[in-house]
Write a structure and sequence with these properties.
The complex is a heterodimer.
Chain A lengths: L1 E4 L9 E7 L6 E2 L4 E7 L2 E6 L4 E6 L6 E3 L3 E5 L1
Antiparallel strand pairs in A: 1-8, 2-4, 2-7, 3-6, 4-5, 6-8
Chain B lengths: L3 E8 L1 H17 L5 E7 L2 E4 L12 H7 L2 E4 L6 E4 L3 E7 L9 H18 L5 E3 L2 E6 L2 E11 L2 E9 L23 H5 L5 H13 L2
Parallel strand pairs in B: 1-2, 3-4
Antiparallel strand pairs in B: 2-6, 3-5, 6-10, 7-8, 8-9, 9-10
Helix pairs in contact in B: 3-5
Classes of the chains: A mainly beta, B alpha+beta.
Chain lengths: 76, 207
């Protein structure tokens, strides 16, 4: 099981809003695929998948904030 | 920062959007370390990822009659308008060669615009919490970026000519009640866009 965690994004950035999930739960993802896009201020940024497997769970939906270090999804 | 320069002139948004993605792939592959794309767009409305379509004030019929397309794109920020007379700057910069800090890059883009304005005697400033560059209470430069694998695309638009501002009436820029201004409005002079480009390129080299 791999936890997808929101990494450090820069000085003073504590959270970002989920703006797009590139996959649905149950779908297969490959390592380095674009997995989720987040928004902070006037910037979006992507988070590539850290592993190959099935995206079993999305823990934070589009429009909701995520904090640095928080688990966004599970890949198994 | 070292970059390859592309000046696309006046170009449809859709074509420049595609071009950005081609250049992005080249930066990702290391063909060149970074790139700076300059252009102007025919009238177009773009919506950032979490934008509200209600911020487009013009009707579908009006937009169709004027030939103004609408594009939902992957950048941050809400709705904006682009048209001839606005200088569009897409820095396809590899932030791994700069600093992996999203907000710092946004602040640097503002700084570039503020420095550029000062070359022409205009004092631009930031407003806390409102990314962009302002002259008094009016906005002169807008920013919306997308970062993938720490490579940036999309960017900055700077209002140069006074004529281009009417297009903003079709929208509620950034979802707020904002008055726009331009370099021509502020200086009372019609400064050649080529001169502005030269100055801008120098600012980006120093970023």
């Amino acid at each position: 099981m791999t936890k997808v965690v929101l990494p450090e994004l820069g000085t003073g950035i504590e959270k970002a809003t989920i703006s797009y999930w590139f996959f649905n739960p149950g779908e297969k993802v490959n390592e380095k695929d674009d997995l989720v896009e987040l928004t902070t201020d006037k910037a979006t940024f992507n988070l590539p998948s850290p592993a190959t497997g099935i995206l079993t769970e999305i823990l934070i939906p589009v429009g909701e904030p995520a904090h640095v270090g928080e688990i966004l999804a599970i890949i198994e | 920062m070292e970059f390859k320069l592309f000046d696309l002139g006046l170009i449809e948004f859709k074509q420049a959007w595609h071009f950005q993605k081609v250049v992005f792939a080249q930066v990702k592959e290391g063909v060149f370390p970074s790139a700076l794309i300059l252009c102007q767009h025919y009238p177009v409305i773009t919506l950032g990822r979490l934008s509200d379509k209600r911020n487009i004030l013009a009707s579908q019929d009006e937009l169709k009659a004027k030939g103004v397309g609408i594009f939902q794109i992957e950048r941050g920020g809400d709705v904006t308008y682009h048209g001839p007379g606005q200088l569009i700057v897409y820095p396809v910069f590899n932030l791994q060669l700069f600093k992996k800090d999203i907000h710092l890059f946004l602040r640097r883009l503002e700084e570039v615009a503020i420095d550029l304005l000062s070359d022409f005697g205009v004092i631009g400033s930031r407003r806390p919490g409102l990314t962009g560059v302002w002259v008094h209470k009016n906005k002169i430069a807008s920013i919306g970026i997308a970062i993938k694998n720490w490579i940036n695309f999309h960017g900055l638009s700077i209002n140069i000519k006074k004529d281009d501002l009417s297009g903003f009436r079709m929208i509620k820029p950034c979802g707020m009640d904002i008055e726009m201004t331009s370099l021509e409005n502020e200086t009372g002079r019609d400064i050649g866009i080529e001169t502005i480009k030269e100055n801008l390129i120098t600012k980006f080299k120093d970023i």
